[in-house]
Amino acid sequence: MFGISDIPKFLLAFFLVLPVISILHEAGHVFFAWLMGAKKIRIIVGTGKSIFRYGIIEVRQYYFWYGFCAFENIERKEKFANILIFLGGVLFNLLSTIAVILLIQNEVLKAGMFTYQFTYFSMYYVFFALLPMIYPGGHYSDGKVILELLKNRDEIIKERTYCVEWKNDEQKWHVLNHQNKFIESFKNEEDALQKARDIAKQNRPSRIIMKKNDKKKEVQNYPRTPL
Length: 227
Known about the structure:
two-stranded antiparallel sheet, 2 domains
């Protein structure tokens, strides 16, 4: 039964153990994303205003609530690569839990409240990450994405293509959406690219291609990212 004496233990779990588990979970995702060639990798812990950054980790005001990762320009986009990325968080949680158990069994660590909460909440993370569901905000759980990919429903990772195209007759760059419809024109190439980036980033999975003088190349991609 939960009593007054258990409140400090609850606070320990809430303010210390859960953020550590969250970092490990996101580290699993970005590790496999890095293996697949991803760039601009970040791990974000919490929500609200950014407090500080250290390397790829950004800690926000409410660091004990929520966590996610971000990356761009992944090189390997096939189904198996995406399954590994979305499975990575669970794998890291499981491996870290097994490591703690082995360290206790070999008397390297002493069993205590911290180790108990760590293993308990790690399994909590694993269960809810693998549960195939759609969250209220429309985001898919890791398990939901993996299940869809295993069912060969690859549309879940199919990219929307946005285009930045040079128009010689106007001497301007046109930004086109994924349906090839005109959005806006710019004289400056970088301004056009930035407009395309802003739109594509908000509509993952997506990519940006540039067209000029019958030449076409991909300049950016924003893959679907796990939570």
